[in-house]
Design a protein that fits this description.
The protein is an alpha+beta fold and 426 residues long. It has one domain: FAD/NAD(P)-binding domain. It is built from eleven helices and 19 strands. Helix 1 runs parallel beside helix 7, helix 1 packs parallel to helix 10 and helix 3 packs across helix 4. The C terminus is likely disordered. Keywords: Oxidoreductase. GO terms for molecular function: oxidoreductase activity.
Length: 426
């Protein structure tokens, strides 16, 4: 099968990283399956607690969604605080609100405290409203977070035009707790400090079988390696396969496509996101965008369900770019790439423990940089204590989505329908 067309903007450093892959060992306290942000964060905090940890990654560190995403570090969840309290009850709901508020801090504090070499800007994230309905929702969100002391602000039409330079927005919402990072640099640096903390990290080790024997989990890889562990954490998210029966059918993996322009000329770039904020808009099939450290505009959104094969597969994003910024019509698109995002039917991350010592996390909902960084620390706390109060989300049984095999077809049709409705709302 030919390799899909993909040329990401995020590049591995030319200098040799301090992180070097290590051969896996035979027996540890914890095996982490998946070397993305979730797996590495869990491994780092577990190792810092004195546990022996082995990360097994099927591919290369950073080649999955953790290193390919847009690098937006956004606190919160898809739901607002009042919904979370109503849905989960006052005690757990308030705890979950506090956790959601902390997810961006988890990233930026780690970068600062560990002195990670990660390009970043922390000037906030804008949720841009293109309809009156979206603006009303933004005002409601602003009220709820402001009541909890968050550094947020409702933006007028003039204010959002000045902050984004984009056309077509009626207003929006600014969350100053957010920011942007180079996601590949962050993932690689997270791997480096995780290895320095004593965790083993072995790329190229695809796990193909799990079984429990005499109180220990035996983890077998495709290459024939076997690692024994007291506990196993599956952190494969959108790349989940059939390793744990039913788990892959609890999520819908979607493709998130992105493009990056050539570095913008100074006269054009000066009016586009001058404050360095990230933006996500309110459309049904949203687009999200930011400036890169070298002055490009990076824009992403949902792509086709099939693997891309040519530059034409990103044409819908190029049209969105020009709709927002007509002055960019003559600027070359130099990079095109894609990654996977895992969505759950209720738009919340799920934590499963089908057997004692076997944990799985699924569903980053497109906010994985902050969410999975913060959740990894909580997972490590649960592994150490067994106290479910360490977890922000309740443990839930694995519930496969009915008719999952047809869900992708339905999602593709829904995306096409929503894209048409969005076009009518221009």
């Amino acid at each position: 099968m030919p390799k899909p067309f993909s040329d990401p903007i995020w590049q591995r450093p030319k200098t040799v990283s301090a992180f070097q892959p290590q051969p896996a060992v035979g027996a540890v306290d914890v095996v982490i399956v998946g070397g993305g942000i979730m797996g590495l964060s869990t491994a780092l905090h577990a190792a810092r607690q004195g546990r022996t940890v082995q990360v097994l990654e099927a591919g290369v560190i950073g080649e999955g969604a953790s290193g390919l995403n847009g690098g937006q570090v956004i606190p919160g969840l898809k739901y607002d605080p009042e919904w979370l309290v109503e849905h989960f009850g006052k005690e757990r709901g308030e705890a979950l609100v506090n956790f959601a508020a902390s997810t961006a801090d988890a990233v930026f504090d780690l970068i600062r405290d560990e002195n990670l070499a990660v390009p970043l800007t922390r000037n906030g994230w804008i949720q841009a409203a293109h309809t009156e309905t979206a603006l009303t929702a933004a005002a409601n969100r602003d009220r709820q977070w402001r009541a909890r002391g968050a550094d947020v602000e409702l933006l007028s039409q003039a204010e959002i035009a000045a902050m984004t330079g984009a056309k077509g927005y009626l207003g929006g919402w600014l969350d100053r707790r957010a920011g942007v990072v180079d996601p590949l640099a962050y993932t690689l640096e997270l791997a480096r400090v995780t290895a320095a903390a004593g965790a083993g990290i072995a790329p190229g080790q695809k796990v193909v079988k799990l079984r429990k024997d005499a109180g220990l989990w035996r983890v077998l890889t495709e290459s024939g390696l076997e690692v024994r562990a007291k506990a196993v954490v599956l952190a494969t998210n959108a790349y989940t396969d059939g390793l744990l029966p039913g788990l892959a059918r609890t999520i819908v993996p979607l493709h998130s496509f992105q493009i990056a322009t050539a570095p913008l000329p100074a006269d054009i770039g000066a009016g586009i996101l001058p404050g360095g904020q990230a933006v996500s808009d309110s459309r049904r099939i949203l687009v999200y965008y930011r400036r890169s450290a070298d002055g490009r505009l990076v824009l992403g959104g949902r792509g086709r369900m099939a693997l891309p094969s040519s530059a034409a597969d990103w044409a819908h994003l190029e049209r969105a770019l020009i709709r927002l910024y007509p002055a960019l019509a003559g600027i070359a698109i130099e990079k095109r790439w894609f990654g996977r995002v895992a969505m759950t039917p209720d738009h919340l991350p799920h934590i499963h423990e089908p057997e004692k010592g076997l944990l799985a996390v699924a569903g980053c909902q497109g906010r994985g940089v902050g969410l999975m960084s913060a959740l990894g620390k909580r997972m490590a706390g649960y592994l150490a204590s067994g106290d479910a109060r360490q977890l922000p989300f309740p443990l839930s049984p694995i519930r496969p989505i009915p008719f999952h095999a047809f869900r992708q077809v339905g999602v593709a049709a829904t995306i096409a329908w929503y894209r048409m409705l969005d076009a009518l709302e221009r």
